[in-house]
Amino acid sequence: MKKHNFNAGPCILPEVALQNTAKAVVDLDGIGLSLLTISHRSKEFQAIMDETVALWKELLNIPEGYHVLFLGGGASLQFCMAPFNLMNKKVAFLETGVWAKKAIKEAKFFGETAVVASSADKNFTYIPKGYKIPTDVDYFHITTNNTIYGTEIHEDIDSPVNLVADMSSDIMSRPIDVSKYAMIYGGAQKNVGPSGVTFIIVRDDILGKVDRPIPTMLDYRTHIDKGSMFNTPPCGSIYTMRETLKWFKSMGGLEKIHEMNKKKAKLIYDEIDRNKMFVGTAVKEDRSLMNICFVMDEKYKEKEAAFLEFATKAGMVGVKGHRSVGGFRASVYNAHPIESAQALVDCMKEFEKQNA
Ligand SMILES: *Cc1c(COP(=O)(O)O)cnc(C)c1O
Fold first, then answer.
1. In the annotation, is 99 catalytic?
2. For a disulfide at 145, which of 54, 125, 169, 269, Cβ 3.0-4.6 Å?
3. Is 193 in the pocket of ligand 1 (CB under 6 A)?
């Protein structure tokens, strides 16, 4: 039976990226060696690295003065690496969920943190608005897409101080104005590749401004100097990321991808709003295009397990909500096909017909 992959991360990847990776794992471009057994210092791998960086720059239109790094450790390591490199005294945060809270926790090791606004009062079902970003901070940190709650900041915000963004789960889902950010980071496994590789886009001039010594591996300048090859990079993950980015490009770039994402998300949100058995959890204006969170209407609460079983039987995978919010979550990242979104909608319609 055809499976419809709604996993939140690691996530669905383009079929062609998987096929090409499978071939390269056996024999990379006919050189008679596997992608996984060649030296990261070989000309073959250097070419893969260079092309991947070039694709990042092209797809996101990254201006001069920025570097793109591919490291290990996940977005979670960036929660501490960012303040290690960028924070002298104080950092401001927008608290929009568990990931933001984790970033705040790590920054506290290095100084004072200020939560400028929080949506904790309503279990992070909205993005706070109308807050004022303080100017006495080293930077302002945001989480652009809140994977667990299905809320998203849909525009690049203006910040009077350096803006640092965790874009783990919506990077490359739409065109962005990189020049508005001092740094952008995330784990690749939510939208641009497999797990094992972390992307960092950093503006050079923000580095070297802190007083503390920084251990070599945790210093962004080390990785800039060595082109993300100070140590052995996650070669296989980078290869699949390159193939994924090539697919984004072949689809027409991020504007086209954004249109596709809007269409897919609308299909499912429209059904949630129409179907009397389900309700969306995020406030409408802040609804994420990537992670669609919904629950059973109060009246049908006892049907939750039955719907999950029904959906699973119909081939849906990964629609169970995060354990901290319950209900359902449909993650519809870039590579998620509209046919799968339609299959979920059909499933919801059929379930309503049989149960309401
Ligand atoms: C998944 C996720 C993380 C954690 O990523 P890891 O690469 O597993 O460390 C951080 N932030 C957001 C927004 C996420 O969705």
1. yes
2. 169
3. no
Over residues 188-225, the pLDDT tens digits come to 999 999 999 999 999 999 999 999 999 999 999 999 99
Residue 327 to residues 86, 282, 312, 332, Cα–Cα distance (Å)? 38, 12, 14, 16
Distant-in-sequence, close-in-space partners of 19: CB < 8 Å, separation ≥ 6: none
Residue nearest to atom 14 of ligand 1 (CA): 168
Which residues have CB under 8 Å from 16's CB, separation 6+? 243, 247
Domains and CATH numbers, the chain: 15-250 (3.40.640.10), 253-355 (3.90.1150.10)
The fraction of the chain above a pLDDT of 90, given in percent, is 98
Closest atom, ligand 1, to C-alpha of 74: 7
Note if 90 is an active site residue: no
Give yes or no for residue 99 CB within 6 A of ligand 1.
Answer: yes
Q: What is the pTM of this model?
A: 0.98
- The confidence score (pLDDT) of residue 258 equals 98
Q: Ligand 1: does its nearest atom lie under 6 Å from the Cβ of 333?
A: no
Nearest CA to ligand 1 atom 13: 168
- Token duo for residue 344: 């979920």
| Whole-number Å distance between alpha carbons of 283 and 193 | 29
Given pLDDT bands bounded at 50, 70 and 90, which one contains residue 14?
A: very high
Q: Is the peptide bond before 10 cis (omega within 30 degrees of 0)?
A: yes
Residue 109 has pLDDT above 90, yes or no: yes
Q: Which of 260, 235, 103 is nearest to 172 (CA)?
A: 260
| Structure-block tokens of residue 245 | 């980015």
**What is the predicted pLDDT for the residue at 324?**
87
Q: Which atom of ligand 1 is nearest to the CA of 76?
A: 9
Residues found in the chain: 356
